[in-house]
Amino acid sequence: MITNKIDYKVYSNKPFAIWANSRIINERLSANSYNRDYLDFAKAKNTFNFKKVSDIAKVTAMIGWKGLTTDDYVDEDGVYLLRTVDIKDNYIDLENAVMAKREKVYEQPQIILKQGDIIFSKDGTLGITAIVPRHQNKEMCVGSTLARIRLNSNLDNYYVCAAFMSKIVQAQIGYFTSGIAQPHITQEYINKLEIPIPSPEIQKYIGDKVRKAEELREEAKRLKKEAEEILNRELNLNKLEESLKSSINSKHNWITSMDINDRIDSYYYKRRYILVNQHLNDYECIQIRDIASVDYGYMPTEDYADENNGVPLIRVTNMIGNLLLDLSDLKYISKSINIPDDKYVDDGDILVVQCGNTTGKIALMTKEVENYLYPSFCLRIKLRNKSINNKYLALLMEMSIIQEQIWQSASYSSVRPNTTKPAIENIRIPLIEKQKQEDVGALVEKYIDNIYQSKQLILEAKQDVEDLIEGNFDMSKVKANS
Fold first, then answer.
1. If you ran DSSP here, which 8-state letter would residue 102 be given?
2. Percent of the chain scored above 90 by pLDDT?
3. Residues 86-119: b if buried by 16+ CB within 10 A, e if exposed
4. Contacts of residue 145, Cβ cutoff 8 Å, sequence gap at least 6
5. pTM, full prediction
């Protein structure tokens, strides 16, 4: 076990207060630099092998940009310019990444990435880490908020990536952070971060979890794309997308009496909304009201409870897109409150964000969140029977053919877009043959399962690093895995 060979004494845990002598205090004088996690690191240095980043890797980052302008951004045939927002769940997500001209990027070869490089956020939200996947064949570089860490030793880079994610390194990042409005850690201090170095067998064991998480993510992308391709073929969605693109610059829109209903505002009759409705006319459709109930979520009226005495509440911030939930920051409602039964979710329910800039965002509930509450800014769609596959419906609701219908109902409020229960009930759902719905559903189910397995493996890898430092790591797991 780790022993305390550093001179300090904890006087209070909440708020955290310590007495420390000069043996622990050095160049940093802020109280935040000596929080509990950093003290755990300081203790661990006495009993575990650490190496500075400068000893195991070369850290490089963008130095200016030599006159980058908006003209240097391109829509295709460029180099992906990664930002912090392009790292999600410790994985590189290129869905919304921007591109820069190759010739401009090549002016700074120190920012160009290759397979196995570690990416590290050094500005804003600090310490977000990912690794360039082994299969990655797209050209990428780090933007101004990121640093590139390229190992120059024989360490397992996937293990090192997990170590960067662990609280033992994150605490050091907090120690070296400067700036308030825009937190920042310099390249000099990144090089001073100390990484715990276990045996090669342990490195491989932990690194394999990160590698497996990467494989699951890649398979998940393929599965979701395959499901979307079925929808594209069956509902001719590529044709619809082309029509929607062409409508962007349309200044006028002629409509017929068949398009007019009880809404008379001009936004409701935008060209793109009319195009979607016309496209739907080519398919057999049902309305959501015919197959499901739609209910408003729970509005908290009291302070949140702690985890042991509360019921988990899914909030809009937990809905991260692509049908997924992030449950790392849950709030809890007191179990003593009498909450109606229709404010809880079941496996297979669909949540729709009802208002704000994320109106229309979709999340599919799984068995892991059964009996969680859903929030007042969401609507829950609960199918009454199996006449339609719920996973087919969830994926379809993410696509333009449904999203445009949601925004058509919300477009009258420019300050705070807001859709309603009746509007969601009126949404038209195009039907494809039942077997193809089931095919889509199976792909979506596997996609979501892969993503959540991937997240769990990353959490386990981080915990393994922390267990190593705390002396709680089970070596039998490594032997069983070898």
1. H
2. 65
3. bbbbbbbbeeebbbbbeebbeebeebbbeeebbb
4. 83, 84, 121, 122, 123, 124
5. 0.88
